[in-house]
Each structure stands twice: as C-alpha cells, then as structure tokens.
UniProtKB/TrEMBL annotation, chain A:
Residues 9-55 form the ATP-grasp domain. It comes from Stieleria magnilauensis. It catalyses: GTP + succinate + CoA = succinyl-CoA + GDP + phosphate; succinate + ATP + CoA = succinyl-CoA + ADP + phosphate. Keywords: ATP-binding, Ligase, Magnesium, Metal-binding, Nucleotide-binding, Tricarboxylic acid cycle. Heterotetramer of two alpha and two beta subunits. Transmembrane segments: none annotated. SUPFAM superfamilies: Glutathione synthetase ATP-binding domain-like (SSF56059), Succinyl-CoA synthetase domains (SSF52210). NCBIfam families: PRK00696.1, sucCoAbeta. Its EC number is 6.2.1.5. This is Succinate--CoA ligase [ADP-forming] subunit beta.
UniProtKB/TrEMBL annotation, chain B:
Substrate binds at residue 159. This is Succinate--CoA ligase [ADP-forming] subunit alpha. It catalyses: GTP + succinate + CoA = succinyl-CoA + GDP + phosphate; succinate + ATP + CoA = succinyl-CoA + ADP + phosphate. It comes from Stieleria magnilauensis. Pfam families: CoA_binding, Ligase_CoA. PROSITE patterns: SUCCINYL_COA_LIG_1 (PS01216), SUCCINYL_COA_LIG_2 (PS00399). The gene is sucD_2. Residues 4-100 form the CoA-binding domain.
Length: 395, 290
C-alpha cells in the first residue's frame, strides 16, 4: 500500500525523522494561505500523486508546468496550485495517461548544502532489510544503480536491533560527511531504520535527503510503501489510503478477495493460482495474442467471487474474449463450472469464452458445462486453450 | 529414496481445528500420510476424527514422536507457530499460510537457518513424496512415484508440471512448493543439493517466476555442482514492471527480476528451459536425453 508524501512526512515527524513544515492544499486559495502561514521567503508547491519523478514530470497539454514548483509569494503559490490541481501529471512512473493531481503539498524552503539519497528495502538474497545511501541525491536511483553502482553504499541491519553506530560511521565516511552533519546522520539513519521496521514498510525512500547549510539532516521527500501483509497490525493506515490513486477495477477485485492487474491487451484471463495465471498470460502472448489482465481467483474461489471476476473482466471495453484456465486442486472443477454457469446468467457473455478445466472433478465439471446453455469453446490443454482464444478474438 | 519426507515421516498439523487445517489434515491422512496429531492452543484433549489435539507442539512431539508439521494458523500467528515447531525439535516445517508480514519472516529465517530444521514456505502448497507422504494442500492423485524432483515457487503451476510429468510416465521423487513470498525458508539451491544426492531423483524440474534472483543463483549452482539433468520454466514473461502478480514476491522492481534475465541465466548454465507452461514435462524429457 502506497501513501502520499505529505502523509509519509507526518509519520516521519511522529517517528522523530526531521522534516520541514508543510501544509496540504486542495484549492489554489488554500495553497496561497498555506504559503502565508509558513511565513518564509520561499515555499515549494508539490503535486501529491502515488508516483515518482514529479519534479521532472509535466502536466498534459501544458509542458511548461512541472509537478513541483518553487514559489516566492502567495500569488505564485496560488498560480502553481492552479496549474496543477485537477490536471493530469505525466511522469516516468505514471505511464502516458498520467495521474490526476487532487492535492498539493506546500512546503517551507530550506538552505540546501548537499543532496543525498537514502532508501530502505528488503534484500531478498540475504533475507534482511538493507539501508542504501548515495551521494547522488535527486537522481533516479535505478539509473545510479545501473551506471555507477559503486556510488551506492549498503548496510544490512537486524530489525530487532536496528542500525548500529559503527554502521552509520562507515556510511558517513563513504558519503564524505563529518563533524556536525555526521552527528545529525547518527540520529537520522537509525531513526529511519526504526521507522522501516515499526511501520512495517516494504519501501521507505528519501530522495533527496538534504544536509542544510547549518548541518541539519532533513527528509525532503518521503516515498513510503507498506507491506500489505502487515496491515492488520496498523488499523490506522485505513485513513491513509487514497482510493482515488488506485485503478478502479483492481480496487473492486481486491474487495472481492481476487488478485487482479489490468493490462493493455484484449484477452481476459480467469485462472486459479498466481503462477498459473502468469503463465497463462505468457502462453497467450506466445501464440500471438495480448492478455488484458492478470487474474488469480485463488484456491478456494466461490460462486460470488467467480461471478465478480467475470463482471470485472467484461467491464473492460478492450476485452474481446475470455480464457478460463483452471487446474482444480483444492478448488474443484465442479465449483468453477457451476460458478461459470451462474455467472453467465447474471452477467451474460457476449464475447467468445474458451474454457480449459483440469484436475479435481474434471469430468463432472465438463459435463455440467456441456449440459448447460452457456456457449463454451472447450480446450483440452493450455496450448489448445491459448490457440483457440487467439483465433476466436481474431488477432 | 526421496528427499525430506517418506513413509516413515510422522506429521502433525498446527491449526488443526480451523476449517482449512482440518480439511487438509484429513486429506493428508486419506492419502496415507502418518498424521499423528494436531495442535491448537486451548483445545488440548479434544480430537479431530480420531486425531489427538494438543495445546503445544512440545506436548505433541513428546506424545506422538512427530518429526514434521504443517502450519495453517492465521498470518498474525504464523511466525510464532514456526518458532514453536523449531523449539520442539521438528525437522520439517511446512508453513502453508499466506499473508505473513515479511519482517516477521526476517526474524524466523535467521533462527531456522541456524538450526538443522528445514522450513518450506510460507505461502506454499507444501511437499509430497508420491505414494508415501503428503504434507500440504496439493491434490494427491495427480502424482506418481517416479524420477523427477519438482521444485517451484508456485502452487497450481506445480500441479500443471506434475500432471505433465505423470502423463509422460516419468513420475516424481519429491515435489516441493517453496512458496510465493519474498522470504521463504528454503531456496532452490538447498533442494538442488538434496536432489543431487538422492538416488531416486534422476532429473530436476525447477519452476520459477519473476522477482528476486533465486533462479539466477540456482543457475550458477547447477553449473558448478549439479550433474543430473535440469529443466526449468519461468512464469511472468509478460508481466509489467512494478506490478505485483498475485504472489508478494512476484514483482519486477528497478528493472531487476525479469523473466528474460532469468531465462538467459538458466540457459547459460545448460538448463533446458520450457518455452511455454505446456512444455514443462517435455523439457524434462529433453534434458534427460542430454
């Protein structure tokens, strides 16, 4: 689960990670008022969307309007907010359609001496969280990792203990930080590591992390993703969720307990199991088609879930045909067949439907489909299924 | 022979009185597994269709001599259940539960790796030595005793592979579902070592997916240490970057963990890679021909 920068900074503040003062605004007037209230000579108006690259990103049809604007008066702050709010911002992470800016964060300025990078993720290879820092603040860290990996410095840490003092010293040495700034780092870095663990983050990234003229260390950005599996420990996160940022069909699927990812193609897929769902997409592509989605109905899908799955698939106007691929293990083929018949009554299919059933109670399941009045193209195996749906959708 | 489990393995189920735990406990017993007991705190003294329930794993082990467990307890309690099994001296721990917070697994992983126990999962279908012992949620009847060691990060895709190898008359030695999470107890490499040393296993089928670097590490290991034929399949060639494909671990992040990279690493190590999920069984046949 992702949250906005302004929300992340509020959590940083609670956790003792230094941030600047800032006020969130949803109208140009609020942005102007926020500027006045902050009382500085400058303020930065920042688009709040769940995607990175906002500073370089621009508003659709207005390439001069960047997603982050430095302002020097309340009027400028108002104008910046006017140029952003309600508009679609396109960044390297949003795709060409962009994402609508519904909020801006008006933040006080500061005297920046150096810009660094700091990020914490899980290192799967060693099964430990890793703190990464770099002198290349403000850059895309993926680019740095590719072109100059030697500029990224890493320290793994034990979640129960946190970052040790010597680890901070090692990192400071590599970053060329000493004196008062190193003292600031000795507080900032362990505080970020504690934050990562205590808040059950999947990613906690500060880019840029700045050192000010008076040697303070401040989080100028906050990119936080929480571990979805740990949400039960944080009931308060519900309030942080911004549904406007999420794909509507993915949201619906999530509510129905389905795992769904929308893609660009025209062949809808309904599969049980994540690995099989992924490889079903792969084999469609292999035979010349384009999958419209990833959809895993899970091991114990019931009639309601399968019906909702069909509704979601068919609500995508791109979908010109549907491939159902079920390997009944725990989920019985009869359950799926029954759900399919029920769904065809309540949802109605007007596109070709190819069904491949295998596994537990397969004969009974096939018989149920054959005896129903659902118009099904039967497939004997995955290859057959993929070829038939590609042919039926006329690609 | 086989790896990890066989007809002599004695199994308990942690979370036996929950609906999933009960259903699959009985399914495993029907398959022929020695299902000797279950654990649900506070329900000791009861029984589930004749299978005794204990309050603690320690008690269950003392009373039944169990050396393996399958865990169905809900995600908030899974890490604790694994640690309890470890503490009680259980040697094979299969955590079926999906949705365990990853930071919990950091803690558990370190303790498991420091012990001589093996953790399979979490978020996995379990493991099976066909005809001898089934620990988990896979449909038993698709398996046949045979020569292929099957290991996979996915559940239903494993069933597909098992189905194909059974249809080709190869059968399976032991099939292990490693789990779909970012941190799982056992890696491909751990199992490659065991399959290589196992007499019954004549070929190995590895089913990977996008995300992480487990397949690349396994490829390097195969090149150096595995003399038996190895075939592989990677799911997710069409998966877009940055999107989680069902499994918490199946995500391409920062341009890393793509199927293309993995396939290249596998092929470079001399592994036969199936082009589509329909060709997994055939890839094993091809690999065995050399």
């Amino acid at each position: 689960m992702k949250i906005h920068e302004y929300q992340g900074k509020e959590l940083f503040r609670q956790a003792g990670v230094p941030v600047l003062d800032g006020i969130v605004a949803t109208t140009p007037d609020e942005a102007a008022a926020a500027y006045e209230k902050l009382g500085g000579k400058i303020a930065v108006v920042k688009s709040q969307i769940h995607a990175g690259g906002r500073g370089k990103g621009t508003i659709i049809d207005n390439p001069k309007q960047h997603g982050v604007v430095l302002t020097k008066s309340a009027d400028e702050a108002r104008a910046a907010a006017e140029g952003l709010l309600g508009k679609k911002l396109v960044t390297i992470q949003t795709g060409p359609a962009g994402q609508t800016v519904n909020k801006v964060f008006v933040e006080a300025g500061c005297d920046i001496a150096r810009e660094l990078y700091l990020g914490i993720v899980l290192d799967r290879a060693v099964a430990k969280p890793v703190l990464m820092v770099s002198t290349e603040g403000g850059m895309e860290i993926e680019t740095v990792a590719e072109k100059t990996p030697e500029l990224i410095h890493k320290e793994h840490f034990d979640p129960a203990v946190g970052l040790e003092a010597y680890q901070v010293r090692k990192l400071c040495k590599k970053l060329g930080i000493s004196g008062a700034a190193a003292k600031a780092a000795a507080k900032f870095m362990p505080a970020m590591c504690r934050f990562y663990v205590d808040y059950d983050c999947e990613l906690a990234e500060v880019n840029p992390l700045v050192i000010t003229g008076d040697n303070q260390m401040i989080a100028l950005d906050a990119k936080i993703t929480f571990d979805n599996n740990a949400l039960f420990r944080h009931p308060d996160y519900t309030d942080l969720r911004d549904l406007a940022e999420e794909e509507e069909s993915e949201l619906r699927a999530g509510n129905a307990g389905l795992s769904y990812v929308k893609l660009e193609g025209n062949i809808g897929c309904l599969v049980n199991g994540a690995g099989l769902a992924m490889s079903t997409m792969d084999i469609i592509k292999y035979h010349g088609g384009q999958p419209a989605n990833f959809l895993d109905v899970g091991g114990s899908a019931n009639t309601e879930q399968v019906t909702e799955a069909f509704r979601i698939l068919l609500s995508d106007p791109n979908v010109k045909g549907v491939l159902v691929n079920i390997f009944g293990g725990i989920a019985r083929c009869t359950t799926i067949a029954g759900a399919l018949i029920e769904a065809s009554k309540t949802v109605g299919f007007d596109v070709p439907l190819v069904v491949r059933l295998e596994g537990t109670e397969v004969e009974e399941g096939r018989k149920m489909l054959a005896e129903s009045d659902v118009d099904v193209i039967n497939a004997t195996d995955i290859t057959d299924a993929a070829k038939k749906i590609v042919a039926a959708t006329g690609v | 022979m086989s790896i990890l489990i066989d007809a002599s393995t004695k199994v308990i189920c942690q979370g036996i009185t929950g609906s999933a735990g009960k259903f699959h406990t009985l399914g495993c017993r029907d398959y022929g597994t020695q299902l000797v007991g279950g654990v649900t705190p506070g329900k000791g003294g009861q029984d589930v269709e004749g299978i005794p329930v204990f309050d603690t794993v320690e008690e269950a082990v003392a009373e039944t001599g169990a050396d393996a467990t399958m865990i169905f307890v809900p995600p908030p309690f899974t890490a604790d259940a694994i640690l309890e099994a470890l503490d009680a001296g259980i040697k094979v721990i299969a955590a079926i539960t999906e949705g365990v917070p990853v930071i919990d697994m950091v803690r558990v992983y370190e303790k498991v790796r420091a012990s001589d126990a093996v953790l399979i999962g979490p978020n996995c279908p379990g493991l099976i030595t066909p005809g001898q012992c089934k620990i988990g949620i896979m449909p038993g009847y698709i398996h046949n005793p045979g020569k292929v060691g099957v290991m996979s990060r996915s559940g239903t895709l494993t069933y597909e592979a098992v189905w194909q190898t059974s249809a080709l008359g190869l059968g399976q030695s032991t099939c292990v579902g490693l789990g779909g999470d970012p941190i799982v107890g056992t890696s491909f490499i751990d199992l490659l070592k065991r399959y290589q040393a196992d007499d019954q296993t004549e070929a190995i089928l590895m089913i990977g997916e996008i995300g992480g670097s487990a397949e690349e590490e396994a490829a390097a290991f195969v090149k150096e240490h595995v003399t038996k034929p190895v075939a592989a399949f990677i799911a997710g060639r069409t998966a877009p970057p940055g999107k989680r494909m069902g499994h918490a671990g199946a995500i391409i992040s920062g341009g890393k963990g793509t199927a293309t990279e993995k396939v290249a690493a596998l092929e470079a190590a001399g592994i036969t890679v199936a082009p589509t999920p329909a060709d997994m069984g055939q890839a094993v046949v091809d690999a065995m021909k050399g």
